[in-house]
Amino acid sequence: MNRLFTKKRIVIALCTLILTGLSAVGTVGYLTFLRSPANPPADACADGRPKSSGPVVVAAGASMTQGTLGRDWVGDLREKPEFRGYEFVNAGDNGNTSADLRGRVDSDIVACDPDAVTLLIGTNDVRDGVPLDEYRDNLGAIIDRVKDKTSARIALMSLPPLGEDLDSEINHRLRDYNAAIKEIATRATVGYVPVNERFTDHLHNRGHRPAYDFSFATASLAAGKYYLLGHSWDEVARDNGLELFVDHIHLSDRGGAMVTDVAAQWLSSAEGAAKSQP
């Protein structure tokens, strides 16, 4: 009888442990990959332009912009005193490529009738091997549509390195996409935000850096440390031998601060240019 009772207790304990683990995994999965960013277009622009009396800014991109994995740089912009009264709409969507963003440009950017738009898109194009001509076409089409349907000032943001080893094969490929971004910004006469340049300036002469090694498991583990254990994104990055990224793609607190800084510089200059117009 005692032996049977002991077995039952062990089974109950194991089931409880398993359920607790599954609950934790589910929580991290939802917070990281499934939930919407703060103030997404579906909420902010459901009835057209947000009712904010201040400028409306749409930050469009993929997971780095969504900010549920890694530092939320759009949220940090929202908190800056100089942008008090601005309406920041987060149009980041996990896993998006330039083609995905092109497909939702009307619903997630044009529908907001924004005053300013930042575009940080292409990391997944590089990872997926999307041909450069196709990437150029998508980026150009997004800009043309926003220009045609709104009066927003637009800025293309260069793509951060993939991992911190600047000599890796994937970062050599990334350079062609960033060259295309700069070329398109010039040709389309839109703004250019030098995210990649800021990151590479920081990483140069930093000595040996870990090889690029992103995976879903790495991302999930990083998210678990943040959401379950309460580590900062900088602490998560350090655990992986990194400084600017938590998992070779998504931003640490320090990396996010760099993106916030260069985006804020452009936004302030764009606002100043708008006010100087007759």
From TrEMBL:
<dbReference type="InterPro" id="IPR013830">
    <property type="entry name" value="SGNH_hydro"/>
</dbReference>
<dbReference type="InterPro" id="IPR051532">
    <property type="entry name" value="Ester_Hydrolysis_Enzymes"/>
</dbReference>
<dbReference type="InterPro" id="IPR036514">
    <property type="entry name" value="SGNH_hydro_sf"/>
</dbReference>
<feature type="domain" description="SGNH hydrolase-type esterase">
    <location>
        <begin position="61"/>
        <end position="215"/>
    </location>
</feature>
<protein>
    <recommendedName>
        <fullName>SGNH hydrolase-type esterase domain-containing protein</fullName>
    </recommendedName>
</protein>
<dbReference type="Pfam" id="PF13472">
    <property type="entry name" value="Lipase_GDSL_2"/>
</dbReference>
<dbReference type="GO" id="GO:0004622">
    <property type="term" value="F:phosphatidylcholine lysophospholipase activity"/>
</dbReference>
